[in-house]
Write a structure and sequence with these properties.
372 residues, alpha+beta, Transferase Creatine Kinase, Chain A, domain 1, 13 helices, globular, disordered N terminus, binds adenosine-5'-diphosphate, binds arginine
């Protein structure tokens, strides 16, 4: 059964992480507001810091485990992670404010999951011409109930989670049936190829590194592919689990329906996921809470992206532009990753609709700028 991981070994802090919460906070305070725009900087006031600095979760997680990345990487956008599920209660004084600010909500009253009726979605291919959208992907994150998040996990915890996950994935049938490939033992060439093809994750994100996301790498990590490589699962990347549906072209209807089918099948597999009333599904980063859903397209928009108002255009539609090799990467050849920004305070169906409307507006604008 699912082992209770808390209270066993405490936070898996490395030797180099000797900085106390106070030392980290001092770095944050020293940074000017033009140097640091993170939500952590905005919401971790002196008063809140004092109230939280000596608190500890039942997983032995502390404030320093949550804020390390944002205090060291002053160019963070969010800047804070939850060291474990209980952090959302223990450190609510700062995390609640960050969550409301990121997801643009006044209250933390996230609705119950609702993926809608996939037989009546009302959307299919967002780019029937096939000229603009290169590929479409929808992912959700899940955390095993009763385990902490990276800063408090041990190697053994990750291995145990991996075993439980693979057992559940092996129950998938039909188009979702596939095979699990652990990272341990995978050749560097295979890893590079899978990463270049946008399937696999790597350990290159300095934000996640400082948050202790890569402890004991690559143990306990891996990827599951369905036989057609359209349904994937990432094991122990940033979150315990990321379920991903993706394919070439712009057929959001097919991609979303596949993900919903996977969720429905996995619900019967015996896995228990961490979920909290008002916050939805719990994830390591507060930006992913709630639906945990990010629906994206890789889309060619050289004209729109070159306008000075590109970011404002995206912000207005609650969509986000990323480079094509994932977060914190650059665009290549005018191709951007466009996705919904909000994941909390709306249902899964509404989140995917927000992305769809945003992508439709992006296509219209690009065509207008190109004179078509
Ligand atoms: P996430 O937070 O959803 O995991 P990242 O921005 O870290 O997203 O991207 C993860 C990987 O998924 C990267 O390799 C990225 O290129 C790929 N990816 C994201 N969206 C798409 C898409 N629409 N089509 C193909 N690959 C995608
Ligand atoms: N911690 C990073 C920052 O604040 C990433 C935040 C959102 N992305 C993520 N993968 N959780 O910029």
């Amino acid at each position: 059964m699912y082992q209770k991981a808390y209270g066993q070994k405490g936070a898996a802090r490395g030797d180099k992480d000797k900085e106390s919460a106070q030392e980290l906070f001092d770095k944050l305070k020293k940074a000017t507001s033009s140097e640091c725009h993170s939500l952590l900087k905005k919401h971790l006031t002196e008063e809140r810091f004092k109230a939280l600095k000596d608190k500890k979760t039942k997983f032995n997680g502390r404030l320093e485990d949550c804020i390390r990345s944002g205090c060291i990487n002053l160019d963070s956008g969010v800047g804070i992670y939850a060291c474990d599920p209980e952090a959302y209660t223990t450190f609510a004084l700062v995390l609640d404010e960050v969550i409301k600010d990121y997801h643009k909500v006044d209250k933390l009253d996230h609705p119950e999951p609702d993926f809608g009726d996939t037989s009546k979605l009302g959307f299919g291919d967002l780019d029937p011409s096939g000229n603009m959208i290169v590929s479409t992907r929808v992912r959700i994150g899940r955390s095993h109930d009763s385990y902490g998040f990276p800063p408090v996990l041990t190697k053994e915890d990750r291995v145990n989670m991996e075993k439980d996950t693979v057992k559940a994935l092996n129950t998938l049938t039909g188009d979702l049936k596939g095979k699990y490939y652990p990272l341990e033992g995978m050749t560097a060439e295979t890893q590079k190829q899978l990463t270049d093809d946008h399937f696999l994750f790597n350990d290159h994100d300095r934000f996640l590194r400082e948050a202790h996301g890569y402890q004991d790498w690559p143990t306990g990590r891996g990827i599951y592919f369905s036989d057609d490589k359209k349904f994937l699962t990432w094991v122990n990347e940033e979150d315990h689990l990321r379920f991903i549906s993706m394919q070439s072209g712009g057929n959001l209807g097919e991609v979303y329906t596949r993900l919903v089918n996977a969720v429905n099948q996995l619900q019967k597999s015996g896995l228990q996921f961490a979920k909290r009333k008002g916050l939805g599904y719990l994830t390591f980063c507060p930006s992913n809470l709630g639906t945990t859903l990010r629906a994206s397209v890789h889309i060619k928009i050289p004209k729109l992206a070159a306008t000075p108002d590109f970011k404002a255009f995206c912000d207005k539609l609650n969509i986000q532009a990323r480079g094509i090799h994932g977060e914190h990467t650059e665009s290549v050849g005018g191709v951007y990753d466009i996705s919904n920004k909000r994941r909390l305070g709306l249902t899964e169906f509404e989140a995917v609709q927000e992305m769809r409307k945003g992508v439709e507006a992006v296509i219209t604008e690009e065509k207008k700028l190109a004179g078509n």
